[in-house]
Amino acid sequence: MKTKSEANLLKDNLKYLISIIFILLIVCLIFFKNTLFQTSFLLKELGKTSIDPEIAFTTNKPIFLEFYAEWCEVCKKMSPGVSQLRKEYGKDINFVFINVDNPKWEKYIKEMNVNGIPQINLFDNESNLEKTFIGLQDESDIKKSLKNLLSKNEVRDIKKPILQS
Q: Is 142 found in the same domain as 75?
């Protein structure tokens, strides 16, 4: 049988051990917070800074429309690449991000027949659906489609008749 002082020493050691583990856990969370939570913050930021779809469909620019959810791991994984595409093509293409958990976007979710997320729809400058991606996609495939979309729009602009007064 252990003496009272041995039992107290064990309790004290256990308290120190738990304290050290707790402190290490906090230090790890602080040290790795950018890696652990960056994609969640980035996904939320994309949603907050999105162009309203009502406006996007009236500007005669191609549209990148992504349906996402903040809890979606694939959406989070793709968000750095999508953010980079937005930086690269944001002047020529309207980037719209719709959170499927927000009831105000129900009209678009039904209209675009969203049955998996992320879902990316690419529209030409006349709002015609050109391409749909569902699920995890390679950034290079999306980039290639964006380039094709822009080149098609340039050809259409050249072929438009010039009105003379």
A: yes
Identify the bridge partners of residue 120 per DSSP, sorted by sequence position.
66, 133
Same domain, 55 and 102: yes
Contact by Cβ (8 Å): 123, 129: yes
pLDDT of residue 90: 92
The answer to whether residue 163 sits within a structural domain is: no
* Cα-based distances in Å from 63 to 32, 53, 102, 121: 35, 9, 20, 8
Q: Are residues 86 and 129 in the same domain?
A: yes
Report whether 82 contacts 137 (CB < 8 A): no
Q: Which residue has the tokens 């129900």?
A: 106
- pTM of the complete model: 0.71
Q: What is the DSSP letter of 63?
A: E
Structure tokens at 139: 């950034």
Assess whether 97 and 147 both reside in one domain: yes
Which has the higher per-residue pLDDT, 24 or 160?
24
pLDDT at 165 over 60: no
Helix (H) or strand (E) holding 134: strand 129-134
What is the C-alpha to C-alpha distance for residues 93 and 27, in angstroms, rounded to an integer? 42
* Enzyme catalytic residues: 72, 75
User: How far is the C-alpha of 24 from the C-alpha of 146, rounded, in Å?
Assistant: 45
